[in-house]
Design goal:
Length: 413
């Protein structure tokens, strides 16, 4: 007897077969890693993402074009290590490692985080030195400026060599403002602050910045850009003032212009976070070199302790800074955001536990955090208003980011 299958059973079987299978744990993990750690870079010109090798190029040109990313990572440490080894051997600095090993270990992670995020290596060096190692904030500030002049400069070279997209209006105007701000801060603001104030203001201001980042990530399906739209004189003035206040923060904490620039670019001008981060790295590199020069050559005020820490840490940061910049240019913006959240939470809690500030100073710090949150909230509202004034305000925001135009539409997740 020939068996038959009822039509309803056939349809049910087809339905079962056509249903998509549930992804396995391994597939979910791969999707997660690809989304948050392998998102990909944004380049100045997407068409130049893959290098075009001229037919008549010689072997050296072919090599440099084909291995652009590798060279971007290798050249800074190769140059800095050559210089450092000649100096280290000539001056026999190796015995210093017996007592100064703490900062090379710290900056192994600090330079990587500084290159990957918009905070700079000083965001790790300053709290570790002042809160955990109980080093004078002035020494910590000087060391942060000195080490960032190597690590963040190396990271900046990596970014420039790879041709990663940057916001050049911010680089120009914020650098001018930050140069004035850091000199004013070193001469006027820093001497007027106590050690406890420097430590607690640092963790409070950076916690307020974490609030700004949180506000940014609450904006779903927001439209972002590669450059500031409809640039004019008052936008340049905003960037100039941003750099000035960032320079003042750098004058007592060793870093600051980076987070000021990042906040204004993303919240007010709707610049893509990854571009704002890469732009901030160039800014802190420039500002750190200015502060280093001013303290070392104009004031001659850098202590021997800061010099010893710097000599021992240079070979570490010139590798980890570019590596952080390379990794940061690939990962998802939420990954960078969570890195900042965790860092600032640890710094804030450690500050209150270790410093044990007075009631008045504690209230001031809470006021800085709360006031900073509302200040950044106002900035985000200003940014939303400016978005409505741009020519493409009525365009749909459903597409994924594109790199061959000034606009890219972010789909937050």
């Amino acid at each position: 007897m020939t068996s038959t299958v009822a039509p309803t059973d056939q349809h049910s079987m087809v339905g079962v077969l056509s249903q998509p299978s549930e992804p396995t744990s391994k597939e979910k993990l791969k999707r997660f890693a690809k989304k948050y750690f392998l998102e990909g870079q944004k380049f100045t010109n997407e068409e130049k993402r893959e290098p075009v090798i001229p037919p008549d190029a010689d072997s050296l040109q072919r090599f440099t074009l084909k291995h652009r990313k590798l060279l971007a990572f290798v050249i800074p440490p190769a140059f800095m290590w050559t210089w450092w080894w000649m100096y280290a051997i000539g001056n026999n600095i190796f015995p210093l490692y017996a007592t100064r090993f703490s900062m090379p270990i710290t900056m192994f992670f600090g330079a990587f985080i500084g290159g990957m995020t918009c905070e700079g290596g000083g965001a790790v060096a300053f709290p570790v030195m002042t809160l955990f190692l109980h080093i004078n904030p002035t020494v910590a500030r000087d060391f942060a400026l000195m080490i960032q002049s190597c690590g963040m400069t190396s990271a900046a070279f990596t970014i420039l060599y790879m041709g990663v997209a940057l916001e050049w209006h911010s680089i120009v105007f914020c650098t001018i403002g930050a140069t004035i701000g850091i000199i004013f801060g070193i001469e006027v603001v820093d001497p007027a602050m106590s050690k406890e104030q420097k430590k607690m203001f640092f963790v409070s201001i950076w916690s307020a910045f974490a609030c700004a980042l949180f506000l940014l990530n609450t904006q779903r399906k927001r439209r972002t850009y590669l450059t500031i739209q409809m640039f004019c004189w008052w936008k340049g003035l905003i960037l100039l003032l941003t750099g000035f206040f960032g320079g003042i923060l750098t004058s007592f904490a060793g870093t600051g212009v980076c987070i000021c620039s990042f906040s204004v670019l993303t919240l007010v001008f709707s610049i893509n976070e990854k571009i704002a981060t890469q732009t901030s790295i160039l800014l802190i590199a420039s500002n750190a070199m200015t502060g280093f020069f001013w303290r070392a050559k104009i004031i001659h005020g850098i202590s021997e302790l800061a010099w010893e820490y710097w000599k021992c840490t240079v070979p570490v940061v010139v590798v980890m800074g570019p590596l952080g910049a390379f990794v940061g240019s690939h990962v998802h913006r939420q990954t960078l955001a969570w890195a900042v959240y965790i860092l600032e939470a640890i710094a804030l809690v450690s500050g209150f536990v270790i410093v044990k500030p007075s009631l008045i100073l504690s209230l001031v710090c809470v006021g800085i955090i709360v006031g900073g949150f509302f200040f950044f909230f106002i900035l985000s509202r200003v940014g939303r208003y400016l978005l409505s004034t741009y020519p493409d305000a009525k365009k749909p925001t459903t597409a994924l980011p594109t790199n061959n135009s000034n606009c890219c539409n972010d789909v937050a997740s």
